[in-house]
Design a protein that fits this description.
The complex is a heterodimer. By secondary structure, chain A is of the alpha/beta class. Chain A has a single domain, classed as Glutaconate Coenzyme A-transferase (3-Layer(aba) Sandwich). In chain A, about 30% of the residues lie in helices and about 20% in strands. In chain A, the strands form 4 sheets. Chain A has a 6-stranded mixed β-sheet with strand order 1-5-10-12-13-14, sandwiched between helices. Chain A has a 3-stranded antiparallel β-sheet with strand order 2-3-4, with no helix packed on it. In chain A, a hairpin with a 2-residue loop joins strand 12 and strand 13. The longest helix of chain A has 12 residues. Chain B has 2 domains: about 180 residues, Glutaconate Coenzyme A-transferase (3-Layer(aba) Sandwich); about 40 residues, no CATH class. Helix content of chain B is about 35%, strand content about 25%. Chain B starts with 10 loop residues before the first helix and ends with a helix. Classes of the chains: A alpha/beta, B alpha/beta. The interface between A and B is large, with 47 and 46 residues.
């Protein structure tokens, strides 16, 4: 039986398979597993970093070291964001129907109920380079009708802000522990691309805080191949850290 | 023999040269290479109403807890292994920072770059369509004077110069004149902070003679030139508890203790303050040594 964590890893890997030779920037654990899986299978041209300041020539396990093939300190990350050859997968405390993301604050920005990280690079990422989101615990608190603060910009707001914002706005995939989405729905809204094995459409509706259009015959997210499972288990995450983020159901 | 002037000074000299109401940029990045010895001195100073400009970590947390911040310009405040900075969270949720300017983190760099280049603004995409524009009504846009092939013109954010009265940065080595090297993997933006500021105060792990800066270190690691620096403070372990590799890694155990005290009841913070922050830098370092011994 394939684990949910490995299904998510394969879905994340698929989000990076057609990116070509660009800087893959995964934020957090499962995105890192998925990106490394893509690099070992569908897209060996991806550039990956140690999450700190160097590009790694090989594909080490989580937390591992490898031969260095480049230098990517924070100032250069900003250069690459503007250059555009980057695909970032960020977290999202909230994501809404229009594909906007919030990592800034919950409640009123002036006096938040809960202060989060701050918008970090989300406003810049979303109008410069391909951006995806990872949500380890899909719930009505995360998938909301409208985010409290727009950190990451979805296609509708980008279009409204004009060509400067819309030109390179590219919200690619939203992968949760239940399903995979893009923003190809009506007027750039969230669309279900696939539902993970073992998850029902009802379960997905209940866990989502807005009316979700689930087309009949929506596919089931593919299971990872045995080669992929072997790579995840033996090469990328031998300690099984991914199960802390997505436990076995 | 004529030589450039000696800029060595004490931590107290730096604080004495600052004034309440100033805009102060703090170098480093989140929990990395922060000029914490200087920040601790601000924390216990009489200075108030500061405009703090920082890719924030515990520097922002400490100054917020001490009620020093009138205005905060930031893109994030995080300790990484403790994602949400408890003192910052508390200050925001209690509304004790009167003015808050949350920018995109690249926008922040563009603002410093505009200041460093003595320009009123620089254009960029970041911010467009996001609540950064909504929550900062002072941010304006500018229309490109150059049209795309179809004749349309892009509207971009005119990121205003982030001009600083003073910058505080911490590097690994410097000479007495202010030439300085970073020995870790990342320069962060300390050169931009220095050039965006009227005055730059630099603390370092070690002051060496000028020849010593490049004796075992490539010249490309000379991030700061003395023309950008007004004061040099030798402050060993002065970035503690943030990282200052290769001299030392982040002190995770201490950071945990800090975060627990900051996020706990007032008595916990008071105890942390009394133990670590009520004396001068020498007392702080002695208390940290005792903490380490106690932790084993």
């Amino acid at each position: 039986m394939t684990t949910r964590a490995d299904v998510c890893a394969a879905a994340i890997a698929d989000a990076f398979k057609d990116d070509g030779e660009i800087f893959a920037s995964p934020m957090g654990l499962l995105p890192t597993v998925g990106v490394r899986l893509a690099r070992l299978t569908s897209n060996p041209d991806l550039l990956i970093s140690d999450g700190e300041s160097v590009f790694l020539a090989g594909t080490p396990p989580l937390g591992g070291k490898d031969v260095v093939e480049g230098w990517i300190p924070f100032p250069k990350v900003f250069d690459v964001v503007a250059y555009g050859k980057r695909h970032v997968m960020m977290g999202a405390t909230q994501v809404d129907r229009q594909g906007n993301q919030n990592i800034s604050a919950i409640g009123d920005f002036a006096r938040p109920r809960r202060q989060l990280l701050g918008s970090r690079g989300a406003p810049g990422n979303t109008v410069n380079n391909r951006t995806s989101y990872w949500v380890p615990r899909h719930s009505t608190r995360v998938f909301v009708e409208r985010v409290d603060v727009v950190s990451g910009v979805g296609p509708t707001l980008a279009a409204a802000a004009g060509r400067g914002a819309a030109k390179y706005n590219d919200i690619h995939r939203i992968v949760s522990n239940l399903a995979v989405f893009d923003v190809g729905g009506p007027d750039g809204t969230l669309r279900v691309l696939s539902i993970h094995p073992g998850v029902s459409a009802d379960e997905l509706h209940e866990a989502t805080g807005f009316e979700l259009d689930v087309p009949t015959g929506v596919p089931t997210t593919r299971e990872p191949t045995s080669e992929e499972v072997t790579l995840i288990e033996n090469v990328i995450d031998p300690k099984g850290l991914r199960f802390k983020e997505v436990p076995n159901a | 023999m004529t030589r450039p002037r000696d800029k060595k000074m004490s931590i107290d000299d730096v604080v004495a040269s600052l004034e309440s109401g100033m805009t102060i940029g703090i170098g480093g990045w989140g929990p990395r290479r922060k000029p914490m010895a200087l920040v601790r001195a601000l924390y216990r100073s009489d200075l108030t109403d500061l405009h703090v400009v920082s890719w924030g970590g515990a520097d922002v947390g400490l100054l917020a807890r001490a009620g020093k911040i009138r205005r905060l310009t930031y893109a994030f405040v995080s300790l990484d292994t403790v994602p949400l900075e408890p003192n910052f969270q508390r200050a925001r949720q209690n509304g004790t920072i009167p003015e808050v300017v949350e920018l995109d983190e690249g926008m922040f760099q563009t603002g410093l770059r505009a200041a460093a280049q003595r320009l009123p603004f620089l254009p960029m995409r970041a911010g467009l369509g996001s609540d950064v524009m909504l929550n900062n009504p002072q941010l304006a846009t500018v229309t490109s004077p150059y049209a795309d092939a179809d004749g349309a013109r892009e509207e971009l954010v005119a990121v205003p110069a982030l001009r600083l009265d003073a910058a505080l940065v911490h590097l690994n080595r410097a000479d007495a004149h202010g030439n300085a090297t970073y020995l870790g993997p990342d320069p962060y933006f300390d050169d931009l902070f220095a050039m965006a500021a009227d005055k730059t105060y630099l603390s370092v792990e070690e002051v060496v003679d000028t020849a010593g800066l490049t004796v075992d270190t490539p010249v490309q690691r000379l991030l700061l030139s003395r023309m950008m620096v007004d004061g040099v403070v030798e402050a060993p372990n002065g970035a503690h508890f943030t990282s200052c590799v290769p001299d030392y890694e982040r002190d995770e155990r201490f950071q945990k203790a800090y975060a627990a005290a900051a996020g706990g009841p007032d008595e916990d913070w008071q105890a942390f303050h009394d133990r670590f922050l009520s004396g001068d830098e020498t007392a702080y370092q002695a208390a940290v040594t005792a903490f380490r011994e106690e932790q084993g």
